[in-house]
C-alpha cells in the first residue's frame, strides 16, 4: 500500500461543556431544586450557563491553545542586561489572556455581594448579580461556571482560587479599611484593576505541618509593654517560602511566626497580607529602622525570587521559591489566629480542586465516548469494529462515567452547602457537614481523577499517550491535587480532627442523615419501580456500611491500640464517607428523576449507576470496608507493615 493510501486517524471532538453534558445539567438542576431561590432562578441561570459555555469555547479555548505553542512556560529573569537585579517573572500572552478573561467574567466576583463592585455586576445583562441577588445559590452557580471553564483554563483557576480565598478571608476578618482597599481589587474585572492573590504557607520545614513555620514577622513600630497588636498593624516579614503559586500576582496571604516561643507551634502563627510590589505597600513611617533588602531595581516589596519550580504539570502556573527579606505586611485579624484564618482560604481552594478533579473526569469521558464512536479496531482480523461495540472496552468507559456521576454529586452538594454558609443560611449541623465533606471531596476526588485519567489514556491507545490529545496534560495537571492543598493522608487526619473537635457530632449527624436519605430515596424509587432487587441490594449495602462505620468510629477506642494511637483508620474513614455520600446522592438523583418531567427522567438508568457505584468494583466500597474491618480487628499489624515498608 502506498503511503498516500493510508487512512489517517479520525480525531475526537470536544464540544462545549454544557450542551454536551446531560449528567452535569441534571445533577445541577436537582441541586437547584432544593431551595426556593434555586427553583426561582434556575430558568435564568441555566440559560446563562449555556451561553457561558459557548463563550468559553469561543474566547477562552483559543487563549488556552496559545499556551500550547512551544516555549510558552513562565520564566524568571533575575538580572537585566545591565547586571541589575530585577526578579521579573515573565508569563506568556495566552496565560495573561486567560487570567484577564476569567476576572472579566467574574470567576471570583460573581460569588460575592455586588455592593462595592464595578457597575458590570449590577448590570444583569453582564452578570447574574452576585450573592446579594442570588443568595445561597450564588456560589453553586459560580462553581458551575468554574467547572465549565476549568478544562480550558491551563490551570489559571489556581491563582483565581487563591484570590477567591483571600477575598473570603478579608470578608470575614479584614478591617473595614482593608476591605475597602483590597476587595475591589480582588473583584476587579479589567486588566488595569484586578489583583491576584497568592497563599504562602509551605516552607521547607513545614508543608503538611505548618507549625514548623520559620518565617517571622515583627511589628514595624515597636509596641510598649502590654500593648496589644491591632488588626491592620504593619509588620516586617523575613523568611523563605518554598512553594508560591501566584508569583505573577499582586498580593499574598502569608503565615508568619509572631510568637518566638516555638513550643506554641501553630498557635504562634499570624496571618499577613503582603502586597507583592513596592508601589502597593503601606507608606513606611520615617522614624522606623526599616531597610528593604531588595535591589532598588526590583519591583518587589522585600521579596527575592530564587527560582521557578520545574514541575510535572501545571506548567503555565509560575510557582516560585521566594526569599522574604523585609516585606512590609499588614496583620489580618488577631495575632496567633493565623492557621484558623487561612483555613478559610483552604476551604475555598480545596473546593476548586474538587471542581477540577470532577471536570477533568468529565472531559476525559467526553473524549472516550466520542472516540469510541469513531475508532475502528480489528478483532481477530475480522471486519473493523467500532470501539463502542466492544463490551470489554465499554467496561472501561463505564468506570469513568460512573466516577463522573459520583463526583458531580459530591462536588455540587459541597458547593450548595458552601453557598448556604456564605449566605449565612446554614444550620450548625450543615456547617459541620461542610467542614467534614470538604477535605473528603478534595482528597477522594484527586485520587479518583488521576486513576480515571490514567485509564482514559489507555482507552485511546497510542493516541492517548500523545501530548496533543489533551489527556496526558490533564493527568499531569490534575495529579497535583493529590499534593497541593494537603495530601490525602493529611486530609484524612483533618477529617479525624473534625470528628474530635465536634465531639463526634459531625459524623453522628452524617450517619443519621445518610440513613434517612436512603429511606426516602428507597421509598420514592419503590413507589415508581415497584420491588426491585437492584434497589434492595444497593440500599442494604449502604445501610450495612453505615452500621459498620458506626461500630468502628463511634467508640472511645477508635484509633487507639494497646501501644498508642493508630491513625491508619483515617484513610478508610475518609474513603467510606466519600463513597457512601456519593452513593446516597446518586440514589437521590435517581429518586428525583422519577418526579421530574424532564426528558432524562430515566430513573432505572440512574439506579443502575448508583448500584454499580455502591455494589460493583467502580466505587471500591468492598475494598475500603475490608481494610476498615481488618484495621479495626487488629489484623494489619503495624510492625509487620513497617518491616514490609
Ligand atoms: O498548596 C497550596 C496552594 C496551591 C495552589 C492551590 C490551587 C488550588 C486550585 C486548583 C484548581 C485547579 S497552599 C498550602 C496548602 N497547605 C495545606 O493544605 C497544609 C495541609 N495541612 C493542613 O491542612 C493542616 O490540617 C493544618 C495546617 C490546617 C492544621 O494545622 P495545625 O497547626 O495542626 O492546626 P489545628 O490545631 O488543627 O487548627 C488550628 C485552628 C483550629 O481552630 P481553633 O483554634 O479555633 O480551635 C481549627 O479548627 O484552625 C482550624 N482549622 C480549620 N477551620 C484547621 N483547618 C480548618 C479548616 N479546613 N476549616 C476551618
Ligand atoms: P510533606 O509534608 O513533607 O509530606 C511528605 C509525605 O508525608 C506526604 O506523602 C504526606 O502525605 C506524608 N505525611 C505528612 N505528614 C504526615 C502525617 N502526619 N501522617 C502521615 N503522613 C504524613 N504551598 C503554598 O503554601 N503555596 C502555594 O502556592 C503552593 N503551590 C504549590 C504548587 C505545586 C505545584 C505544588 C506541588 C505544591 C505547592 N504548594 C504550595 C505546597 C503544597 O501545599 C505542599 O507540597 C503540600 O502541602 C505537602 O507538603 P510537603 O511538600 O512539605 O510534604
From TrEMBL:
Listed name of the protein: Acyl-CoA dehydrogenase NM domain-like protein
Cofactor(s) the protein requires to work: FAD
Coiled-coil positions: none
Domain Adaptive response protein AidB N-terminal span(s) in chain numbering: 11-190
Highest taxon in the source lineage: Eukaryota
InterPro entries: Acyl-CoA_dehydrogenase-like (IPR052904), Acyl-CoA_Oxase/DH_mid-dom (IPR006091), AcylCo_DH-like_C (IPR036250), AcylCo_DH/oxidase_C (IPR009075), AcylCoA_DH/oxidase_NM_dom_sf (IPR009100), AidB_N (IPR041504)
Domain Acyl-CoA oxidase/dehydrogenase middle: 199-324
Amino acid at each position: 500500500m502506498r503511503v498516500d493510501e493510508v487512512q489517517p486517524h479520525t480525531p475526537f471532538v470536544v464540544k462545549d461543556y454544557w450542551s454536551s453534558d446531560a449528567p452535569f445539567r441534571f445533577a445541577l438542576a436537582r441541586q437547584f431544586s432544593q431551595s426556593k431561590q434555586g427553583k426561582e432562578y434556575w430558568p435564568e441561570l441555566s440559560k446563562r450557563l449555556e451561553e457561558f459555555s459557548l463563550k468559553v469555547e469561543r474566547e477562552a479555548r483559543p487563549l488556552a491553545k496559545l499556551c500550547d505553542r512551544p516555549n510558552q512556560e513562565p520564566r524568571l529573569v533575575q538580572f537585566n542586561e545591565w547586571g541589575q537585579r530585577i526578579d521579573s517573572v515573565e508569563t506568556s500572552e495566552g496565560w495573561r489572556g486567560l487570567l484577564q478573561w476569567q476576572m472579566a467574567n467574574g470567576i471570583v466576583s460573581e460569588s460575592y455581594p455586588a455592593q462595592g463592585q464595578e457597575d458590570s455586576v449590577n448590570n444583569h445583562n453582564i452578570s447574574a448579580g452576585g450573592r446579594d441577588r442570588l443568595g445561597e445559590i450564588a456560589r453553586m452557580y459560580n462553581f458551575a461556571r468554574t467547572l465549565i471553564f476549568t478544562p480550558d483554563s491551563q490551570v489559571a483557576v489556581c491563582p483565581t482560587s487563591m484570590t477567591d480565598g483571600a477575598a473570603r478571608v478579608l470578608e470575614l476578618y479584614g478591617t473595614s479599611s482593608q476591605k475597602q482597599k483590597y476587595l475591589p481589587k480582588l473583584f476587579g474585572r479589567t486588566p488595569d484593576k484586578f489583583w491576584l492573590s497568592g497563599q504562602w504557607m509551605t516552607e521547607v520545614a513545614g508543608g503538611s505541618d505548618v507549625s514548623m513555620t520559620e518565617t517571622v514577622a515583627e511589628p514595624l513600630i515597636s509596641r510598649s509593654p502590654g500593648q496589644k497588636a491591632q488588626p491592620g498593624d504593619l509588620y516586617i516579614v523575613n523568611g523563605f517560602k518554598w512553594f508560591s503559586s501566584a508569583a505573577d500576582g499582586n498580593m499574598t496571604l502569608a503565615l508568619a511566626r509572631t510568637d518566638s516561643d516555638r513550643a506554641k507551634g501553630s498557635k504562634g502563627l499570624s496571618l499577613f497580607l503582603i502586597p507583592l510590589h513596592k508601589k502597593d505597600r503601606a507608606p513606611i513611617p520615617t522614624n522606623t529602622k526599616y531597610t528593604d533588602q531588595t535591589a532598588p531595581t526590583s519591583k518587589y516589596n522585600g521579596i527575592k525570587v530564587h527560582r521557578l519550580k520545574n514541575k510535572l504539570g501545571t506548567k503555565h502556573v509560575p510557582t516560585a521559591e521566594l526569599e522574604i527579606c523585609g516585606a512590609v505586611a499588614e496583620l489580618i485579624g488577631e495575632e496567633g489566629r493565623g492557621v484558623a484564618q487561612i483555613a478559610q482560604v483552604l476551604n475555598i481552594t480545596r473546593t476548586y480542586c474538587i471542581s477540577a478533579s470532577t471536570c477533568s473526569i468529565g472531559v476525559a469521558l467526553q473524549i472516550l465516548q466520542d472516540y469510541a464512536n469513531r475508532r475502528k479496531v480489528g478483532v481477530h482480523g475480522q471486519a473493523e469494529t467500532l470501539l463502542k461495540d466492544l463490551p470489554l472496552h465499554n467496561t472501561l468507559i463505564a468506570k469513568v462515567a460512573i466516577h463522573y456521576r459520583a463526583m458531580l454529586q459530591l462536588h455540587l452538594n459541597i458547593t450548595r452547602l458552601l453557598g448556604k454558609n456564605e449566605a449565612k443560611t446554614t444550620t450548625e449541623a450543615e456547617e459541620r457537614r461542610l467542614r467534614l465533606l470538604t477535605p473528603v471531596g478534595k482528597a477522594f476526588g484527586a485520587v479518583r481523577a488521576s486513576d480515571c485519567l490514567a485509564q482514559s489514556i489507555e482507552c485511546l491507545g497510542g493516541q492517548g499517550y500523545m501530548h496533543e490529545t489533551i489527556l496526558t496534560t490533564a493527568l499531569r495537571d490534575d495529579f497535583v491535587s493529590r499534593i497541593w492543598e494537603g495530601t490525602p493522608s493529611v486530609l484524612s487526619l483533618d477529617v479525624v480532627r473534625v470528628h474530635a473537635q465536634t465531639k463526634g457530632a459531625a459524623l453522628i449527624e452524617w450517619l443519621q442523615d445518610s440513613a434517612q436519605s436512603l429511606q426516602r430515596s428507597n421509598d420514592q424509587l419503590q413507589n415508581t419501580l415497584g420491588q426491585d432487587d437492584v434497589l434492595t441490594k444497593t440500599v442494604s449495602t449502604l445501610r450495612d456500611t453505615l452500621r459498620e462505620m458506626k461500630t468502628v468510629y463511634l467508640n472511645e477506642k477508635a484509633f487507639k491500640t494497646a501501644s498508642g494511637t493508630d491513625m491508619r483508620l483515617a484513610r478508610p474513614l475518609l474513603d467510606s464517607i466519600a463513597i457512601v455520600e456519593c452513593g446516597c446522592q446518586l440514589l437521590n438523583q435517581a429518586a428525583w428523576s422519577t418526579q421530574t418531567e424532564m426528558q432524562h427522567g430515566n430513573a432505572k438508568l440512574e439506579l443502575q449507576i448508583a448500584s454499580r457505584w455502591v455494589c460493583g468494583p467502580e466505587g471500591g466500597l468492598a475494598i475500603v470496608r475490608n481494610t476498615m474491618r481488618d484495621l479495626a480487628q487488629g489484623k494489619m499489624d503495624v510492625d509487620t507493615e513497617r518491616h514490609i515498608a
